[in-house]
Every structure is written in structure tokens, then in C-alpha cells.
Amino acid sequence: MKKKGFTLIEILAVVAVMGILSTIVGVSVVKIKKKANIKEAKEMEKQITNLGEEILAHEKISVGKSSKFIQAYNDEENKYYINIEDLKNSNYLDSDIKNPAGGTNCTAYLVIEDKEFKGLIDCPNLYATGQTDNTYTTLNIDSTSMSRLFWNSNKWDY
After folding, report:
1. How far apart are CA 43 and CA 95, in angstroms?
2. Residue 128 CA to chain centroid, in angstroms?
3. Could you give the CA distance from residue 26 to residue 97 in angstroms, rounded to a whole number?
4. What angle do CA 79, 66, 85 make, to 5 degrees?
């Protein structure tokens, strides 16, 4: 008489193969998600850089040459930075920059040097400006070598 069904060994073999496959797929999904989050952080970094051009255009129209922002832009001897709080206070940025990986918000700066803008971003445990691989390293801002440009009573100041 023939028995119908699978033996315990056959069932265990199928379960083991499924476990191995799900582990491989799970690790791949995590890596893909991290790469996508890093790409999003780099995109935010570019947007901060582009924000400098937008502020410059707005200041030229609304304030003119007396704008401290324009003066900082034209100052080729010094380097200036604007932190995220001042970008929000000046209404050039609506809200905090959310970390694509979740958790704490990203820290960001707009740097003005030699008539150029550069966005700097630090999204904890994910990405910081200058990171060349997938290993996160905290962004170190040397504020002693830069002047801070800040929003004060509806105008830029330093």
C-alpha cells in the first residue's frame, strides 16, 4: 500500500530552502533601501545648494546691494555658513529636513564661498556630505574658519 503525502525530511528540506531564500532576499531589500535613502539625502544636499541661488535672486530684487547676503556672496576673502534654523526663520525653508532613514532630523548648512554655494547635510546613521561609501561618518563643520550669516529681524546679518 502506497502512502500519500510528504515525509518529514522532505518538508524540512523545503522549509530550509525557503528560509535561505528569504534571508537572501531580505538582505538585498535592506541594501536597496539604504542606497535609495542615501540617494534621497544627496538630492536634498543639491536642493540646499540650489536654494542659495534662489535666495541670491530674491535678495537682489527685494533688498539690493545693501543685503548682507549679497555682501557675503561677493566677499571673496571669507567663507560664510547659514544653518537650517535661519533658513527656516527666513522662510526660505518650510520645515526641518527629515532623515530618509527615519529617526532624528538631518542637520544642514548652506555655505557661501568664492561666489559659490554648497549644501552640507548630515543625516545621522545614513549619510553626511563628503561620504564616499556606505559607511556613515559624522559631518564636521569647522565654524571657527567661517562667519555665520543669520536671519535677524527680517534681514540677513553677520
Report:
1. 16
2. 7
3. 28
4. 50
Q: Which cell goes with 156?
A: 540677513
Question: Residue 1 — pLDDT band, cuts 50, 70, 90?
Answer: low
**Torsion region of 115: left, alpha or beta (phi above 0 gives left; psi -120 to 50 gives alpha):** left
Which pLDDT does position 4 carry in this prediction? 80
Residue % of the chain over a pLDDT of 70: 99
* Gap between the Cα atoms of 145 and 79, Å rounded: 7
CA distance 21 to 107: 38
pTM for the predicted model, two decimal places: 0.78
The C-alpha R_g of the chain, in whole angstroms, comes to 25
pLDDT, greater one: 89 or 26: 89
